[in-house]
Design a protein that fits this description.
It holds the Pfam family AAR2_1st. This protein is an alpha+beta fold. It is built from 14 helices and ten strands. The radius of gyration is 23 Å and the shape is elongated.
């Protein structure tokens, strides 16, 4: 087998073991991708593979504070020999890229897509220079290139998937099934902010989120975004912001909206066939599309799902305890990986080495209030499941250490009147 070079596990791997992994793993063959294109897959935090294959994206590529694009600090800048990735484990993955100008200083919006690979499968895409994106080939061409891959004709031009970071990716995608991806992904599969411009103008937002969205629009990674697009976004589940019943008194409606367990049950029955893991899969889909694909539509859906779950009192303690253990574990790893720093980050640029920016979760955004109220429900319960309590404590510690929040502060009231997911209080007539 020709050497493809690599870092981490691949660099120290026995040649026979590596050959077997290449045979059993899937391959992503990417043809004619221009140099300096930024490319990433999953949560890869990898050093240079080969100078001719990849060049590590440097810190001066960010240029703005909003840290969705600083995910690009963790991805590859394509070199002249790059033809894709090998040794990709079977299962769901997220591929994302940005085309670059010749100077390497200007970038098109990030484009990402999910795919589910099978053992020994070869997936082929080719760069369309006019549209600056990866496209599928005809079935005949794909078969021809797949056979060439299996003969190792492209092996020295394929970068190895970093298996040491695969565990991190599994923590972010363990509920993400192929059927869930097919249900949620847009027509054509591509997720990009370039097709969300009209949606962003209509989406309800808090003051902070409006400022953040404007910041993203003005960034270099969102240049050349079309004013309008006929493309449809992802097929996300509609999550009502509040419970509404015609024949329920105002006081009962207030109670239903302060504890959204009944709304959660309604959503599960109506949209997920009662299957909790489908909802958790959508939670993971939206976080990945937001964190790596720069999709603001995905952020708003992720926020809606998190808001619904954190607004439940009865479900975590009694009716859906196991689901909430899984939710807290999923939510914990999302925030942990989203805010982890690169291994080689230095103190002077550490603030720019995060996947996400703390501004997305500052105290005047939804997460502080909702998590504070949720922890009160769990920690003050007379009887509580041990696993639920354990993960709630882990999440609370993570939020306090990452953001410096004081979640014991009872004097703080940060309800944003513009936030559609804030608690709904229904006043009685004549009160």
């Amino acid at each position: 087998m020709a050497s493809g070079g690599g870092g981490g596990a691949a660099a120290r791997m026995d040649p026979e073991v590596a050959t077997e992994l290449v045979r059993k793993g899937s391959t992503l063959l990417l043809l004619d991708v221009p140099q300096r294109t930024l490319f990433g897959i999953d949560t890869q935090v990898v050093g240079p593979v080969l100078p001719a294959l990849f060049v590590r994206a440097s810190n001066n590529l960010t240029g703005f504070r909003l840290s969705l694009p600083p995910v690009l600090l963790q991805i590859f800048s394509v070199g002249p020999k790059f033809k894709g990735m090998k040794m990709v484990p079977p299962g769901p993955h997220f591929v994302y890229y940005c085309s670059s100008s010749r100077s390497g200083n200007e970038f098109a919006p990030t484009v990402g897509f999910f795919l589910t690979t099978q053992p020994s499968e070869v997936i082929v895409r080719k760069w369309d220079a006019q549209e600056e994106r990866l496209i599928k080939l005809s079935e005949e061409e794909e078969i021809r290139y797949s056979e060439a891959v299996r003969r190792f004709e492209f092996d020295d031009q394929l970068g190895p998937y970093n298996l040491e970071s695969y565990g991190d990716w599994k923590q972010l995608s363990n509920y993400l099934s192929e059927s869930a991806i097919e249900r949620l992904e847009p027509i054509g599969g591509e997720i990009t902010i370039a097709w969300e411009s009209s949606w962003m103008d209509k989406a309800p937002q808090s003051d902070m989120e409006r400022r953040l969205m404007e910041q993203l629009r003005e960034s270099k990674f969102a240049k050349n975004v079309p004013v309008q697009s006929e493309r449809r976004g992802c097929y996300y589940t509609s999550i009502p912001a509040s419970v509404k019943h015609k024949h329920v008194s105002g006081g009962d409606l207030t109670a239903l909206n302060l504890d959204k367990t009944s709304l959660l049950e309604s959503v599960l029955d109506k949209h997920y066939q009662g299957q909790e893991d489908l909802l958790l899969g959508e939670l993971q889909f939206t976080f990945i599309a937001f964190m790596m694909g720069q999709s603001l539509e995905a952020f708003m859906q992720w926020k809606a799902l998190v808001s619904l779950l954190l607004s439940c009192s009865e479900a975590p303690l009694h009716t859906r305890t196991n689901m909430f253990v899984k939710f807290l574990r999923t939510f914990y790893y999302q925030l942990k990986h989203g805010f982890q720093r690169t291994q080689d980050s230095r103190s002077e640029d550490a603030a720019n080495s995060l996947f996400l920016d703390e501004a997305w979760f500052s105290r005047d955004i939804f997460l502080y209030r909702l998590s504070k109220d949720f922890f009160t429900v769990v920690f003050e319960a007379s009887v509580v499941d041990g696993d639920l309590l354990s993960w709630a404590r882990k999440l609370k510690t993570l939020l306090e250490t990452t953001f410096g929040w004081d979640l014991e502060d009872n004097a703080v009231n940060l309800i944003d009147e513009d936030d559609e997911f804030a608690p709904v209080v229904v006043e009685m007539d004549g009160s």
